[in-house]
Write a structure and sequence with these properties.
The complex is a heterodimer of chains A (165) and B (432). Helices cover 31% and strands 20% of the residues of chain A. With 165 residues, chain A is of the alpha/beta class. The longest helix of chain A is centred in the C-terminal third of the chain and has 24 residues, at 132-155. The relative contact order of chain A is 0.24. Chain A has helices spanning 20-28, 45-52, 97-106, 132-155; strands spanning 5-10, 36-41, 57-64, 73-77, 113-120. In chain A, helix 1 (20-28) packs across helix 4 (132-155). With 432 residues, chain B is an alpha+beta fold. Chain B is 42% helix and 18% strand. Chain B has helices at 43-47, 55-59, 67-82, 88-119, 124-130, 132-153, 177-198, 240-243, 269-276, 282-290, 303-324, 373-388, 397-409; strands at residues 3-9, 18-25, 28-36, 162-163, 166-167, 212-215, 226-229, 234-235, 244-247, 256-259, 340-348, 351-359, 365-371, 423-427. In chain B, the strands form five sheets. A four-stranded antiparallel β-sheet of chain B has the order 3-2-1-14, with helices on one face. A three-stranded antiparallel β-sheet of chain B has the order 6-7-8. The chains are: A alpha/beta (165), B alpha+beta (432). At the A-B interface, helix 2 and helix 3 of A face helix 4, helix 5 and helix 6 of B.
């Protein structure tokens, strides 16, 4: 059984709040327990699927546009339930996160533990910087992922259970 | 008057944002409009004043799916302006890099975007539940293309190793050993892909297209060749502007290309294949025949089989290039900035990609012109919809919507992903 664990920040750094996931990854750089991989991706489905391949545990972070107030953070346990339909349809990646997770599930490749943090974006304009509320959410999510993984490390290698959402 | 408006609208996507509007009256298609409303990005203006040595890195950013095509047309055009020609191993490596992009791009389209149309699924995820082995094969095959681009380009997306005059770094022979093993598997997988796609049901629709593609004296075209058509056109890239023109149409931010002599034309796999069947590697030619294709294919729904044949050719060609590879003395030939104009056309996965650069004496770009394949195919996509969809109007709305999407996806436009998410609106007009 693979022990590979990975955190993937997803987004387009040139499209405003779509960069939120990547910003979280950058905040976590150098701060994760040993052995946990950290990656940034643009969200293309097959690359994301390859990133999940063989992982026992994965935490994904992406921006979304579901109509909630900007900066809203939601945590989904993808190992327990599928993504709610439509929440990620306005991401700037066409065949993206939802397809990657869906393919991984259909092909039996979804990590046993797979968590998604979704940060509600406000502006996805070309060349824009992060909206202030999204910037706050990015720091919050980085902290929560850090705490989650440190908590895992303290619980020891034997446990792979999922925290309640 | 019975009137039906089929409107497939909007999804944002990095490579393109577009919609489709079909107006039907009295059981016939009145008009078909592909609306590309992606904001223009002004790359041609952005290139002005930049050093000609920067073209590979700037133009690679135009498309996340086919950055190699943009790099290839760009560096070949600048090299033409500077009087530099690629020969020997550097030329081979450029072709190899292009093989990688064709494998990546075509395989993504075949398995993730187009096959679900033929097998009756809303998308690749649903298809994967019933056709897991095929989807795994597709994903693995795409990885073989990624591996070529990563090795030669420095990374899988937006490769950084191409430069005017050659490459920044060229691989050692031994670097290719693992890749060759991957490609041997990929060649078999590509052969299986041809067989798989050839087994789909295809609508019986054909049109008398004007095909336009490169043709080379000895090779299936990637980077070199004359621009030819099945109507007698046979010109060097430098004469492109004399024979083709772009015009603006109000509904679209993409320019529409036409032949100056009049009419729409088609670029891409169908054109390339039909004008170069005799240049395919024997294994690809045999697979095409076994898959029910003749030397010319005028049924755009069979483009999925043609793409599979091209993936097979690209795998075979990549292995041939690796086998023959000899390490070059230098990764690039020296270039001397000078004033001049250079043009190049190469074969992007979606078809002919034309670049022209005018350089000042210090090598800075005075003027740039880029004509991508999707803009050249836009008129053909609309003509296909107008011609073919009329025969499907008796289908239920959902089936008709899918048929429209499938018809657009025949072209693998960069907007094709968006059509997965398009909404259907029907205006039936006043009741009879």
């Amino acid at each position: 059984m693979s022990r590979r664990r990975i955190v993937i920040g997803i987004g387009n750094p040139e499209r405003g709040d779509d960069a939120a996931g990547r910003q979280v990854a950058r905040l976590l750089h150098g701060k994760l327990p040993d052995g946990i991989e950290l990656a940034e991706q643009d969200g293309e489905a097959t690359a994301l699927l390859a990133g999940l391949d063989g992982a026992a545990s994965a935490i994904l972070v992406d921006a979304c546009a579901s109509g909630a107030p900007a900066g809203t953070v939601r945590r989904f346990d993808l190992s327990a339930a599928a993504l709610p339909h439509g929440a990620f349809g306005v991401s700037s990646h066409g065949l993206g996160l939802a397809e990657a997770v869906g393919l991984a599930r259909a092909l039996g490749q979804l990590p046993a533990r797979c968590i998604l943090y979704a940060i509600e974006g406000e502006s996805f304009a070309i060349g824009a910087s992060l909206s202030p509320s999204v910037g706050i959410a990015v720091a919050d999510v980085a902290q929560r992922i850090h705490a989650e993984l440190i908590g895992d490390a303290e619980q020891g290698a034997a446990s792979a259970c999922t925290k309640p959402a | 008057m019975p009137r039906k408006t089929i409107k497939l609208s909007y999804l944002a996507r990095i490579e393109g944002e577009a919609g489709l509007k079909l107006v039907v009256r009295d059981g016939a298609v009145e008009s078909a409009e592909l609306n590309i409303f992606e904001p223009p990005r002004f790359f041609e203006a952005l290139l002005r004043g930049r050093a000609c040595t920067e073209v590979a890195d700037i133009t690679a950013r135009i498309c996340g799916i086919c950055p190699v095509a943009y790099q290839m047309s760009a560096v070949h055009a600048v090299e033409a302006a500077l009087g530099v020609t690629m020969t020997g191993p550097l030329r081979g490596l450029r072709r190899l890099l292009y093989c990688g992009e064709w494998i990546e791009s075509h395989t993504l389209h075949i398995y993730m975007l187009h096959a679900p149309d033929f097998l009756g699924y809303a998308g690749a995820v649903d298809m994967a539940r019933d056709h897991g082995d095929a989807v795994r094969r597709g994903l693995q095959l795409k990885k073989a293309g990624n591996a070529i681009v990563a090795l030669l380009g420095g990374r899988e997306i937006h490769p950084i190793n191409v430069r005017v005059g050659g490459f920044f770094r060229t691989p050692r022979r031994r670097d290719f050993a693992p890749l060759a093993e991957t490609l041997k598997w990929a060649r078999e997988a590509a052969l299986e892909t041809v067989r798989w796609a050839a087994g789909f049901d295809f609508p019986d629709r054909e049109r008398d297209y004007t095909f336009v593609a490169l043709r080379h004296a000895a090779e299936y075209p990637f980077n070199e060749g004359r621009i030819v058509s099945n109507r007698g056109l046979d010109i060097p890239a430098a004469a492109y502007d004399e024979h083709f023109e772009e015009s603006h149409v109000a509904r679209s931010t993409a320019l529409h290309s036409q032949l100056r002599s009049g009419g729409a034309y088609l670029v891409g796999p169908l054109a390339r294949y039909s004008l170069n069947f005799d240049r395919l590697s024997p294994i690809a030619r045999d697979a095409a025949r076994a898959g029910g294709l003749g030397p010319v294919c005028t049924n755009p729904y069979r483009s999925i089989v043609v793409r599979a044949v091209e993936v097979l050719h690209a795998c075979d060609e990549a292995l041939r290039i690796i086998e023959a590879y000899e390490e070059p003395d230098q990764p690039a030939v020296a270039i001397v900035p000078q004033a001049g104009t250079g043009c190049a056309a190469t074969e992007a996965p979606r078809g002919l990609l034309y670049h022209r650069y005018r350089l000042d004496a210090d090598g800075s770009i005075a003027d740039a012109r880029i004509v991508p394949p999707t803009s050249q195919n836009q008129a053909s996509i609309e003509a296909d919809l107008a011609n073919y969809v009329g025969g499907f109007l008796d289908l239920p709305d959902e089936a008709l919507r899918r048929r429209c999407e499938q018809t657009v996806r025949n072209y693998d436009p960069c907007i094709s992903c968006s059509t997965h998410f398009l909404r259907l609106e029907i205006d039936r007009g006043p009741a009879a």
